[in-house]
Specification:
Layout lengths: L6 H12 L40 H20 L3 E12 H7 L5 E8 L5 E5 L1 H11 L17 H21 L7 E8 L13 E11 L2 E10 H4 L3 H5 L10 H12 L5 E4 L7 H5 L17 E5 L2 E11 L2 E9 L5
Antiparallel strand pairs: 1-5, 2-3, 2-4, 3-6, 5-6, 7-8, 8-9, 9-10
Helix pairs in contact: 2-5
Amino acid sequence: MEPILSKQEIAELLTAIKQGKVPADFETSDSLPEGKEAKPLNLFQISALDDEQARIPNFDIILDVFCQNYSMSLTNQLQRTFAMSKTGIETSQFQEFLMENKDVGAIGVLSLVPLKYGALIMVDKQLSFSMIEIMLGASTDLGPLQLNRKLTTIELSVLKNVMTNACNDLDRAFKPLLDMQSSVLKVENNSRMVSITSSDSEILVCRFNVTIGDIGGEFKLVFPLATLDPLREQFKELLNVNKSKQGLWTDVFKDELYDMTATVIAQSGTIALTINQLLDLQEGEILDLDYDPNSPLKVLVEDKLKFFAIPGVLNGKKAVSITGIYEQGA
């Protein structure tokens, strides 16, 4: 018996016919040339024939924001320069996708409150082992690891912290649409243990390439289409400047500014020397600074005077204690 199409598949087929992707008028057998090839039609790919974003418009914008945020988070967390780029979005059946990704490194199961369904983070083996080595203090001279084994429970626990940061950046990316609070429920190395939707459900697979120097790997975000469907209208209005929601992007930029790094200098004094004087400096010479030891230090933020402080020691390390705020014109 032939399988019966679901309501969603019938709706997709009708949409494809209306858009001209599937012809409604079929040629008769008399006019059909001999040997004419017939191409198979994948109902799950109909919506993506011309544009992968047709089902969820502007979704790529959210992914680009996540990509930028997460690359900075990895750089700050692991103290290595990470580069992350989106390589594509594709649709698939959930069960079929899991069968194709049996030998993945680490899989994080996410809860996306208040959305009904969750999502998956998938990190390939090479990237997983490389991140673990970096977190455990491996030398920058070491090349990529080629280990032909599954990650251990301890290694999965180590990677959970990296995935938690991904949740925070995913929340930021979705901020213009809703106040989402995602979290990592568990991390697995077996794709059979990560059921987030029914086996025949349609999913969106978002692929990213992550590089750390000469080391690289693939990072995937997997969303059931049912997770994103309730936000379809919000996605459509994401770039509509006539909507009040556009102000939310301003809030996103403000939040990002708070996480930017700045150079802070505690300055005891300055001195001006000519090039000749610099070239003539010898070991043991003493330079007189324009600084009164009894006066507070100047604290510069990005070369601008912002605070005053006194020097000291805390836990065996040099430190400064802020004593005042510089007021321009005072």
